[in-house]
Write a structure and sequence with these properties.
The protein is mainly alpha-helical. The protein has 18 helices and 5 strands. The longest helix has 26 residues.
């Protein structure tokens, strides 16, 4: 599936932090003009297309649905702006990233401070078997799955089913889950969620008064499904491919997790544009302070990135069959492969 094998990955020595941090530092400097161009080519066309979808309701809902495809693309690109702000990589100042991120949060329905906290945990623990569950796709080992009750297995199967993950999943990930306040959340995180919920409620109420509640849903629903579904799939394949990197805490390496546990999803140029270069996920995970518009250049100009796992779109879709981590084979396997591995020898 990828361009390297697990054996090749394990033979390569992880790069020293002092070397790659210094090498990548020049790419981690935001350029205000380039960032403004990102805004002009993401938020502005999304807002205009959202309005066009509403106006098209008077012509044909099929036209509204047709417009939802490019609108969803620009909404996904807007999410990348929000994502870069959360990493402090979009603008030169911390305050600038915070305020712009909070505005973008209203467009993507996601509380800025809460998401930034969860996403930082994801970056700090991706590929660590002992620290799963922080901002990642829940993944069980074969042994953990086989030890579960029948009901537990059914729930895990439903969650990992592509029809559930990419249809119900986007609505949960964008509309429901961000509204929920974890019991153990810090006061700052709780305030972020509560304030975002209140402002969103007022904004949606205003749009419903302006457009009509039914019209608002007819416009917003396909955008959530398309942009959310694409976003969930992107996040899934970035760390859920066959020879992905997983290690127990004492053997876990940040650099290895970035370079062998994060994919390089090679997309056609138009899709790379709409996804804000996030397919270059190996670069992003090694240095999260690199803004999206510098990821491609960083990849091309540094040999450290030239041996990473490369996935095509077809590889990404095939990866949705993989459900469990097999410790013995050191790769993700399907449910069928897990049954074979667990079967007693004849």
């Amino acid at each position: 599936m990828s361009t390297i094998t697990p054996a090749a990955a394990s033979d390569a020595a992880p790069p020293e932090p002092s070397s790659w941090k210094a090498t990548l530092a020049p790419y981690a400097r935001p350029h205000v003009g380039r960032s403004l161009l990102d805004l002009l080519t993401s938020v502005v066309p999304y807002v205009l297309l959202f309005a066009a979808m509403y106006l098209a309701l008077d012509v044909s809902y099929l036209l509204t649905l047709a417009l939802s495809v490019p609108a969803a693309g620009f909404l996904l690109r807007t999410y990348i702006v929000f994502h870069d702000c959360a990493h402090g990589s979009f603008l030169p100042t911390k305050r600038g990233n915070q305020w712009l991120g909070r505005v973008m949060a209203l467009i993507v329905y996601t509380p800025f401070s809460a998401w930034r906290h969860d996403h930082a945990i994801h970056h700090a623990t991706a590929g660590d078997l002992d620290r799963r569950g922080g901002g990642d796709v829940p993944t069980l080992t074969v042994d953990e799955y086989l030890a579960m009750s029948w009901g537990g297995r059914l729930g895990y199967r439903l969650f990992r089913n592509p029809w559930v993950m990419f249809t119900i999943g986007p609505f949960y990930a964008l509309v429901i889950q961000p509204r929920l306040v974890p019991k153990d959340a810090r006061p700052r995180i709780k305030r972020s969620i509560h304030l975002t919920n209140v402002v969103l409620a007022l904004a949606i109420a205003g749009l419903c008064l302006l457009m009509g509640p039914v019209q608002f849903l007819l416009v917003q629903a396909p955008l959530v499904l398309l942009a959310g579904g694409a976003g969930v799939w992107l996040f899934y394949v970035q760390h859920q491919f066959e020879d992905v990197y997983w290690e127990c805490g004492e053997n876990w390496s940040y650099a290895d997790a970035a370079l062998q546990g994060s994919s390089y999803l090679k997309l056609p140029q138009p899709l790379q544009f709409f996804t804000g270069n996030i397919g270059l996920h190996h670069v992003h995970h090694l240095s999260a302070r690199i803004p999206n518009y510098n990821l491609q250049r960083a990849h091309e100009e540094n040999a450290i990135f030239h041996g990473v796992p490369v996935l095509s779109i077809a590889d990404g879709f095939r990866a949705t069959r993989l459900k469990l981590w097999c410790r013995e084979r050191r790769r993700l396997v399907t449910f069928a492969e897990a049954r074979v591995a667990a079967a007693p020898a004849a």
